[in-house]
Amino acid sequence: MTKYSIAVDIGASSGRLILGYLEDGLLKLKEIHRFENKIVKKDELFCWEADKLFQEIKNGLHKCMQMGIKPDSIGIDTWAVDFVLLDENDKPLTEAVSYRDPRTDGMMEQVFDHIMKERLYLETGIQFQKFNTIYQLYSIKQNSPEVLEKAKSFLMIPDYFNYLLTGKKVNEYTNATSTQLVNAFTKKWDAQLLDSLGINKEMFHEIKMPKTILSNLSEELIGELGFDMKVILPATHDTGSAVISVPEQDDSIYISSGTWSLIGVENYFPICITKALDYNFTNEGGIDYRYRFLKNIMGLWMIQEVRRNYQDLYSFAELVDMARSAESFKSIVDVNDDRFLKPENMIAEIRNYCQDTNQMLPIAPGEVAKCVFDSLAAIYKVAVAEIEEIFEKKFQKINVIGGGCQNEMLNQLIADVTGKEVNAGPVEATAIGNIAAQLMALGEIGDIKEARSIIKDSFEVKKYVPAQHILN
Ligand SMILES: Nc1ncnc2c1ncn2[C@@H]1O[C@H](COP(=O)(O)OP(=O)(O)O)[C@@H](O)[C@H]1O
Ligand SMILES: C[C@H](O)[C@H](O)[C@@H](O)C(=O)COP(=O)(O)O
Ligand SMILES: [Mg+2]
C-alpha cells in the first residue's frame, strides 16, 4: 500500500506543502500549497508571523482533504536558530523573533566574557553568527530577564509547530545544533555552558533524532481537519533536509541555495580545528549523526531585497536576464559584510559599499543584479578553496540545490570561477529530504543510501562546465 508523506518546508522567503510518494521505484512529488514568508515589525522587533504560518500549514492540509488526499504522515522543516518560549501554561511568552533583529548586536562579545570563543567552538563546533540562539537568549536575559524566569519550554520554530499539531514538546537534533548550545560530542544540551550563561537548562526538552515518529495529531486537530496522520521529525533544520537530497556526496561540495547560501560537505565527525574556526565553518548536526560541515553566505537574500526595492517590478528570471546584459559591469561586494544582513535599502547599501571601495556604482537594475551574482560567485570560490585547504583534497564537483539552482547565470559563474563541474538540482531539495526521512521512518525506504539512490534516479540535474577559455 503506497504511503503518502507531506513535507512542510518553510524557508525565509516562502513556504510550501509538497506531497511525496514512491511509484515504480521513483520519488514523485505533488505541490499542494505555497505561501509567502516574510519578516514583519512587532513591538519594535523583527518577527516571523508564526500564527499565520501555522494557519498556512492547516490551509495546505485542508487542500489535501479537498483533493481527497489523506497523507499518512507530515514533517515540518524551517530555517534555523529561531524559537519561541512558552510559560507554565504553555502560552507563548515571546514572539517568533527573527535572526535578523539587531537585538543580538554586541551579545556575542558579552558571551565571550563567560566562555572563551575557542572553547565555545571546541565544545559545539558551531560557526559564529551573531544571531545564533545562544546570543538571542543572552539578549533576552540581559534585557527582559523576567521572560527567561517565566520560561518553562524552549521550542524552535518547527518544534513549536509540532507542538501545535500534537501537544508534544521535543527539540529535534539537527536544528538544536544550530543554537550553539548543543555539545558536538555528547550531542546533548551543554548543561555547563547554559549554567555559565545563567540560562535555565530545565526549559530545554529531550533532543530527538530525524526519523522519529513523534505522535499522531491531537484530538483537536483531527476534529478540525477531519483526518489523522503521523507527525514525523524530518531533519527539521531545512538545510539538514536539503543536504539529504544532494544526489552525489562523495567528492563533491554542496551549495544549498535559497535565501541563504550554505556551502559545505557532509562529514562523519566534527572538525573543530583552528583553521575551521578562523574560516568560520560550522558542524551542524545531520541525519544519522552525520555532520554538515558548512558556512553561511548571505545568499539570494540580497537579490530578494533588490527585487523588493524595485517594488517587485521584475521576476527573478528577469533580473537574471538583465544581469546578463550588464556584461561589462565588474564591481563586487563582500556579501558577508554585516551591512547586508538587514539594510534599510539593499540597493543603496550595495552602492555605498562600491563607493567606500572606490568601485563603479551599479545604476541600472541589471548592474545591481550582476553585482550580486558576481559577488556570490566570488565568495563561493573562496569558500571552496577553504574547504579544500581544510580537507587537504580537491573536490571535483559542486551540487547546487534549492530555489537558487534555477539561476542559470549564477550556476555558470560558479563553474567558471571555480573551474569545477556544477550540477544544479533538485529545486525542492529540502522538501525531498524531508519526505525521504518520513518514508524511512514509515519503512518505505531502507536507509539514507537507498534514499539518495532513489532521489538521484528521480530528479534531473543540469550540468554546467567551466567556459573553455577558463580551463585553458
Ligand atoms: N526562475 C528563477 N530564476 C532564477 N532564480 C530563481 C528563480 N526562481 C527562484 N529563484 C531564486 O530562488 C530563491 C528562493 O529559493 P528557495 O530555496 O525557495 O528559498 P527559501 O527556501 O530560502 O525561501 C529566490 O530568492 C531566487 O533568487
Ligand atoms: C539563520 C540560519 O543560518 C539559516 O536558517 C540557514 O541555516 C538556513 O537554513 C536558511 O534556509 P533558507 O531556506 O531560508 O535559505
Ligand atoms: Mg529553503
Automatic annotation (TrEMBL):
Q: List the disulfide bonds.
A: C354-C371
* Tagged with keyword Nuclease: no
User: In the Enzyme Commission scheme, what number(s) does this protein have?
Assistant: 2.7.1.5
* Signal peptide span: none
Instruction: Name the cofactor(s).
Output: Mg(2+)
Q: Which domain of life is it from?
A: Bacteria
Query: Where is substrate bound in this sequence?
Result: A80, H237, D238, T239, N296
An example Gene Ontology molecular-function term = rhamnulokinase activity
Q: Which reaction does it catalyse?
A: L-rhamnulose + ATP = L-rhamnulose 1-phosphate + ADP + H(+)
Keywords carried by this UniProt record: ATP-binding, Disulfide bond, Kinase, Magnesium, Nucleotide-binding, Rhamnose metabolism, Transferase
Query: Which Pfam family, just one, is annotated for this protein?
Result: FGGY_C
| Family to which the UniProt record says this protein belongs | Belongs to the FGGY kinase family.
NCBIfam families given for it?
rhamnulo_kin
Q: What does this protein do?
A: Involved in the catabolism of L-rhamnose (6-deoxy-L-mannose). Catalyzes the transfer of the gamma-phosphate group from ATP to the 1-hydroxyl group of L-rhamnulose to yield L-rhamnulose 1-phosphate.
Name this polypeptide is given: Rhamnulokinase
Q: What lineage is on file?
A: Bacteria, Bacillati, Bacillota, Bacilli, Bacillales
